[in-house]
Amino acid sequence: MASEKLQATSEWSLRGLLIGLMIPIGMTTLNMSMFSVALPAIRDSFGIAPDVVAWITTAYSLPFVVFMPLYGKLGDGLGKDKLFLWGIALFMLGSLLCFFAATLPLLLVGRVLQGVGTAGINPLCLAIIADSFPAEQQGKAMGTWSSIGPGASMLGPLLGGFAVDFLGWNYIFLMSVVAAVIAFYFVNRHIPALQISRPPNFLREFDWLGVLLLGGFLILFIFYLSSRALTGVEPLRDWRLLAATIFCGLAFWLWEKRARIPIVDLQIYAAKNFGTASLAGGLRMFVMGSMNFLKVLYLADVYGMDATRLGIFTTVYAGAILATTRLGSQLADRRYARRVLLTSFTLQLVMLGGLATMALPAWAAMGLMLGQGIGAGLALASLHRIALRDVPTAESGSAAGLYSTARFAGSTFGAAIAGVALQQAEVVMSQTAAYQLVFGLVAASCLVSLVVSWRLEK
């Protein structure tokens, strides 16, 4: 494996390369963390229901998920460094549209462009780390790289809370534009051109139909989960969308079995632990997507917190994740990855169970959320390490794209399902009871995550 490492590592220090990869992920995380604080203000500004609020989140995360495998596969053939720059430019354009958005449709278009732009950053970064670092250092490298996310999440809510309270919610996107300019400059100047080996007729023979079918499946499934805002039919009841979802899913599976260069090479799942770790990663992000959607709305609706206090809490929450991310990565390099995952999901299950079953004062509810964040941080680098550990270098981009798709599909589904469940529950019960019910659903997904993690090989 060492002989296959990218030539870039002989020209650039691994430390410098890692810092270069951390800048773009910090940009995207800053955007997401500022947006989460602004969500109640955006909801009130447009006067929309919870399931429609979830669509503002989904407008970013859905294209983010759909385009990940495309970026991963194209990165193996066209060059990961070039795709970085295109992605950052699209993110910048989307941020500008969101800043000037005076209507909900324009805001949604801007969020879509942001999602398309940032879709490649996670898989391409993971692929470069897996290619460049020796096996015994990959866990630590991925933990260091992952730590920029919680670190940016600590700064983002403070900036976002200040912008919402004193300038207006749209100013969070102006800050995203500034972050994008910095990221574009740094990547263009400091990330080296990476060596690639493009097959003949790569673009002409690329699996474009597979991309369309996979995207159609994911998009239609999200539409089915939250159909009221689109078709006027209550969620989970529009059978037309369900039928179209099933059709795209079956067509995609059949096509991938015969495609010459499939967007999803099913042979990758033969790599040890890859499929199971991808499922566990998706479930972990389902919990995180649900919590990122629920926590600020819960604290605003039930305890009346303003944007500044929400920003402070979200910063502390990100700090809780950061506190255990590096610890989890170090334990993963010492062959404790499976134990770390079991501990992580058990702790999250306990914390979410408390939110679901007890009437709590504000300080206790925030304490349980922080406990859930501590548990979530433990699993992050361990899952990255386990999923990509045994994948060949030539397939690292594709594998990282598929793994990232599974993870962020979980986040997208988590936000959408939480929004639908909250909307439906508020019709028949009190607001506090509705939130408790949804927290219970999220806790159940932690239990499933725990069972899946038992299946991972050491």
CATH topology of the largest domain: the name is Growth Hormone, Chain: A
State Rg.
21 Å
Q: Quick one: CATH superfamily of the largest domain?
A: MFS general substrate transporter like domains
Poorly predicted regions:
1-11
Element order: H for helix, E for strand: HHHHHHHHHHHHHHHHH
- Given helix and strand content, the structural type is mainly alpha
Could you tell me the number of beta strands? 0
User: What would you say the CATH architecture of the largest domain is?
Assistant: Up-down Bundle
| Major sheet details | none
Percentage of residues in DSSP E strands = under 5%
How far apart, in Å, are the first and last alpha carbons?
20 Å
How many structurally independent domains?
2
User: What characteristic shape results from the CA principal axes?
Assistant: globular
By CATH reckoning, the class of the largest domain would read: Mainly Alpha
Key terms:
disordered N terminus, 17 helices, mainly alpha, Growth Hormone, Chain: A, 458 residues, single chain, 2 domains
Written description of the protein model:
80% of the residues lie in helices and 0% in strands. It has 2 domains: 383 residues, MFS general substrate transporter like domains (Growth Hormone, Chain: A); 56 residues. The chain is globular. The chain contains 17 helices and no strands. With 458 residues, the chain is mostly helical.
Q: Could you provide a short overview of the structure?
A:
Helix content is 80%, strand content 0%. It has 17 helices and no strands.
